[in-house]
TrEMBL record:
PROSITE patterns: ALDEHYDE_DEHYDR_GLU (PS00687). Keywords: Oxidoreductase. InterPro entries: Ald_DH/histidinol_DH, Ald_DH_C, Ald_DH_CS_GLU, Ald_DH_N, Aldehyde_DH_dom, Aldehyde_DH_Superfamily, Succ_semiAld_DH. GO terms for molecular function: succinate-semialdehyde dehydrogenase (NAD+) activity. SUPFAM superfamilies: ALDH-like (SSF53720). Residues 21-475 form the Aldehyde dehydrogenase domain. It comes from the Bacteria. This is Succinate semialdehyde dehydrogenase. GO terms for biological process: gamma-aminobutyric acid catabolic process. Belongs to the aldehyde dehydrogenase family. Its EC number is 1.2.1.16.
């Protein structure tokens, strides 16, 4: 049922700068990870283009910020409605460049649109304060104002949702944006540019520049006009952008890597835990930053849980995301396949047992894998695999599980399966993580604050906190 995405009006082999579609002299080719075919090409632009985009954003922002939040919200709501109207086309394009099954791609488009819809409303609630005064002849006020021009850099694993999660609160707050999408999946972002224009977003407020990440990232971080960098990607690049932003003292929103523990206690509903684990681990072939990475199963249920998990994973169907029969698509590229393969080899070399899968298939496909007898020394425990590999570690006591869960530089998501309410609270409070799924493997929603602690990042996206991150506080002291 999917139309050929390359024939669609949503496809742009051009960048969006100040409302104009700009071609390039050099190009970057984009592959379909399921087939290796070239999907299309996008301009390989650099510092000059990024600087022009920053200039356009700065020029466009004051008029946008001066509009009422309701007027800005109306544009964002039209944008969201257009995304839903074009959900199937956007999903087909997303699957083509990113690989995830079409059903997941459709889900991502709805999820992406939900941020536009949410912040269209939330923008109206950027309340200030009146502070009871410290002096009889003075009155104190706090205004919330847009932070300024925003530089947004997004990854390939959610090519649509990571974009709207940044541009929706930015635009709702009254900011203008220069977006650099991942060069692996730029078409979804560019398609959103088409819809933003159709929704009536004035020129210059959403600029999309594809090309040399180092040059564009350098221009965004060094510009004194850009007041905030919002980045989703690896901890390594996040730290680099933070360092580059130091000279101009920018605000930073960083959604970085994770290494999510998934703890199943003896009193858990084992079938529900298996289901939640699969939802979190194998969605997007394990390529999400909140994907389960370390599964801790308590001694009493360890064997039953592991056997059920292996049986359920063995039943997952792997293949191109365009075939609705498939549950797990390809990995994004050869490097991603090599990493999963290396984690399996390292674990098996140190005594792990393969219960199902364990090997690469053709192309960028990897068989959904379950390993048991995993230890803290193995690479799969220490690093984010970002692939369809579930690694199970046995544990005895609650304190041991908490200590092991926290023995990571990361702290994005964690999952706990247990029925004892006291245990749930204690564990949830003790785990160093920005988000905790309790008896669920699916936690993402636009209404809740998404983000991490420790090396997993700074700031929150979604919810009212997501708007806060795009607002600056101005204190007014009025003498009577
Ligand atoms: P991944 O390894 O998951 O691709 P990255 O952190 O490398 O994660 O990429 C996330 C985003 O950061 C992508 O849009 C990528 O192009 C961009 N990026 C990579 N290197 C840099 C850099 N030096 N400066 C700015 N952006 C960068």
């Amino acid at each position: 049922w999917a139309p050929d995405p390359m024939a669609m009006d949503l496809v742009r082999e051009a960048c969006l700068i100040d409302g104009a579609w700009v071609a390039g002299e050099d190009w970057i080719e984009v592959d379909d990870p399921a087939t290796g075919e070239v999907v299309g090409r996008v301009p390989a632009l650099g510092r000059d283009a990024a600087e022009r985009a920053i200039g356009a954003a700065a020029a466009a922002m004051p008029r946008w910020a001066a509009r009422t939040a309701q007027e800005r919200g109306a544009v964002l709501r039209r944008f969201a409605a257009l995304m839903i109207e074009r959900q199937d086309d956007l999903a087909a394009l997303l699957t083509r460049e990113q690989g995830k099954p079409l059903a997941e791609a459709r889900g991502e488009i709805a999820y992406a649109a939900s941020y536009l819809d949410w912040f269209a409303e939330e923008g109206r609630r950027a309340y200030g304060e009146v502070i009871p005064t410290h002096a009889a002849d003075k009155r104190l006020f706090v205004l919330r104002q847009p932070v300024g021009v925003v530089g947004a850099i997004t990854p390939w694993n959610f090519p649509a949702a990571m974009v709207t999660r940044k541009i929706a609160p930015a635009l709702a707050a009254g900011c203008a944006v220069v977006l650099k999408p991942s060069e692996k999946t730029p078409f979804s972002a560019l398609a959103l540019g088409v819809l933003a224009q159709e929704a009536g977003l004035p020129d210059g407020l959403l600029n999309i520049v594809t090309g040399d990440a180092v040059a564009i990232g350098g221009a965004l971080t060094q510009s004194p006009i850009v007041r905030k960098i919002s980045f989703t990607g690896s901890t390594r690049i996040g730290a680099l952008l933070m360092e580059q932003s130091a000279a101009t003292i920018k605000k930073l929103g960083l959604e970085l890597g994770g290494n999510a523990p998934f703890i199943v206690f003896d009193d858990a509903d084992v079938d529900a835990a298996v289901e939640g684990c699969i939802a979190s681990k194998f969605r997007n072939a394990g390529q999400t930053c909140v994907s389960v990475n370390r599964i801790y199963a308590q001694a009493g249920i360890h064997d039953a849980f592991t056997a059920k998990l292996a049986a359920a994973v063995a039943a997952l169907r792997v293949g191109p995301g365009t075939d609705p029969a498939n549950d797990v698509g390809p990995l994004i590229d050869a490097g991603a396949v090599a990493k999963v393969e290396a984690h399996v080899a390292d674990a098996v070399g140190q005594g792990a047992t393969v219960l199902t899968g364990g090997a690469r298939l053709s192309g960028h496909f990897f068989a959904p894998t379950v390993l048991r007898d995993i230890t803290a020394a193995m690479a799969v425990t220490r690093e984010e695999t970002f692939g369809p590999l579930a690694a199970v570690i046995r544990f005895d006591g609650d304190a041991e599980a908490i200590a092991q869960a926290n023995a990571s530089p990361y702290g994005l998501a964690a999952y706990v399966y247990a029925r004892d309410i006291g245990r749930v609270w204690k564990v949830a409070e003790a785990i160093e993580s920005g988000m905790i799924g309790i008896n669920t493997g699916l936690i993402s929603t636009e209404v809740a604050p998404f983000g991490g602690v420790k090396a997993s990042g700074l700031g929150r996206e979604g919810s009212r906190h997501g708007l806060e991150d795009y607002l600056e506080t101005k204190y007014l002291c009025v003498a009577l």
